């Protein structure tokens, strides 16, 4: 049944999924580093010319993360709990998707990679804080 305890379990699952996404993203970054060594900084448009499967998993997994966090928003509203943190999390997820897409479609604009990683860490931190702030 729907309860605060169930919501906390889903938040914990969401944090776990986010950690998996960060780890996959690190593998994508390793792939990009290899491409940088191969093509150089001046050929950014070639870095993702033949991406590995990890890239496609990382990109597609973001949709799952977005949908699962919308589910958390729905459940939090249904349970009449504070939705401040899940709203912040969803804004961060949208920002994360935008920075990720900008790296792909605009050949890695300046600071897009560190901002992308920073937002991922902020998402996990917000999820963790939300998890701790909910009382059973």
Can you lay out the helices and strands and say which pair or pack?
Elements: H1 4-39, H2 53-78, H3 84-105, H4 112-133
Helix pairs in contact: 1-2, 1-4, 2-3, 3-4
Oligomer state equals single chain
Helix content: over 70%
Radius of gyration: 17 Å
Order of helices and strands: HHHH
Quick summary:
78% of the residues lie in helices and 0% in strands. The protein is mainly alpha-helical and 136 residues long. Helix 1 (4-39) packs antiparallel against helix 2, helix 1 (4-39) runs antiparallel to helix 4 and helix 3 packs antiparallel against helix 4.
Descriptive overview:
78% of the residues lie in helices and 0% in strands. It is mainly alpha-helical and 136 residues long. It has one domain.
């Amino acid at each position: 049944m729907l309860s605060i305890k169930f919501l906390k379990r889903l938040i914990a699952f969401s944090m776990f999924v986010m950690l998996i996404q960060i780890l996959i993203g690190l593998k994508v970054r390793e792939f990009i580093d290899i491409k940088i060594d191969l093509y150089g900084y001046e050929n950014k448009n070639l870095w993702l010319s033949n991406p590995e499967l990890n890239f496609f998993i990382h990109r597609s997994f973001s949709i799952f993360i977005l949908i699962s966090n919308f589910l958390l928003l729905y459940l939090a509203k249904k349970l009449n709990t504070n939705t401040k943190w899940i709203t912040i999390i969803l804004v961060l997820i949208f920002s994360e998707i935008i920075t990720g897409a900008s790296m792909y479609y605009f050949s890695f604009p300046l600071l897009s990679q560190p901002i992308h990683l920073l937002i991922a860490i902020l998402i996990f931190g917000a999820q963790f804080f939300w998890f701790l702030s909910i009382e059973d």
